[in-house]
């Protein structure tokens, strides 16, 4: 319960940041999707349950502040977290390239789910070309910003080969004898 | 297989199905306007509104501070030009005031006495839509101030949109640039009718314009008054580019909204006199919440005008 409350509060903080501060980093009306980035980081670094519950609560908070029906963002973010949590086993999440790729895929997945929900609930979707354009630009921007989210949310670590080397060095460290 | 083992083995899909089902329930509730959307909105906006208001002020303050230096010289030149313009406009205002008074006298004679200026509620924009999929803003006036669903919202430049959700201390406004917003308009010069719909790109499209209608670039569009949301004569925007093909039943045009929706900070919510009760119509426009008037306003609000989700 405490975890859910924490996530709910985090969601409120993120929603405020998205609706106020993120305006400053918008380029040509496109801004990175903060909620998607956070869920991607959690899906790749935390267990699947946390990632999905976080996606659900973040989406719900976003729904209350957004113009659509309540549950649309929650649905899309939860589904995205579910599918992305499978990628954890196949990706080297320390690598910024992998992080960007997962950010891009996550944003595209979320956008596709959301667009289908919009159509299903009979909201105006706009032209297909415009929707695809928006999905691509937002996903690209989100992908570029995802490594920053990783750095901010997860304690930075050395690359895996360096970690192994350091471990080896520590284990095989020779302590000089001291004369008494 | 034991039941706990089954749950453990399939915990991922089970959690997914549970959460997605919950989302679907919320969506159904939201489409039918039941209690979850309302209660959740109250809870979240109750927490978010004060913080959002403060953060918005800090953000605006910082942005203003940064923009002051380069703007200084430009502002000085603009100031001189604007002073000249103010002088000209003041003369026009005097002239128009004279005409308005004359019109009022004529109306009184014809027993059509009514307020020419409908009462307004001034509000401040405290947040924009966090997701890029809808174009909405949140303003800091709600139920307690007399705001109700489907009231038109204006800025100093022109129409902004209309209220789609109200909470105790805040309201959600659907901008005219959202593709879910459709406004019945008339071309001021030629009186041709059409519908302005948002294009989700910060602009609008003028649709359902007869192929023979007289429209040119730069024409002014105003609300036609045929919808129950927008009263007649509100400035919507200007025609930017006309697209028509020979043989088509309708022509259409790009429209530049009179209001730059990315830069709105203060808005006025118009209380429509026809739908509003006496108390709300005659009440002075101020910042204090009119708690007594709110239930009456909500009670008389038309429910069939809700835009289809």
Automatic annotation (TrEMBL), chain A:
It comes from the Bacteria. GO terms for biological process: regulation of cell shape. It is found in: Cell membrane. Its main location: membrane. The chain crosses the membrane at residues 64-83, 103-123, 135-154. InterPro entries: Cell_shape_determining_MreD. GO terms for cellular component: plasma membrane. This is Rod shape-determining protein MreD.
From TrEMBL, chain B:
Keywords: Cell shape, Coiled coil. Pfam families: MreC. Residues 291-302 have a biased composition (Low complexity). Involved in formation and maintenance of cell shape. GO terms for biological process: regulation of cell shape. Belongs to the MreC family. One of its GO terms (cellular component) is plasma membrane. NCBIfam families: mreC. Residues 79-106 form a coiled coil. Residues 284-309 are annotated as: Disordered. The lineage of its organism: Bacteria, Pseudomonadati, Candidatus Hydrogenedentota, Candidatus Abyssobacteria. InterPro entries: Cell/Rod_1 (IPR042177), Cell/Rod_MreC_2 (IPR042175), MreC (IPR007221), MreC_beta-barrel_core (IPR055342). This is Cell shape-determining protein MreC. Residues 125-270 form the Rod shape-determining protein MreC beta-barrel core domain.
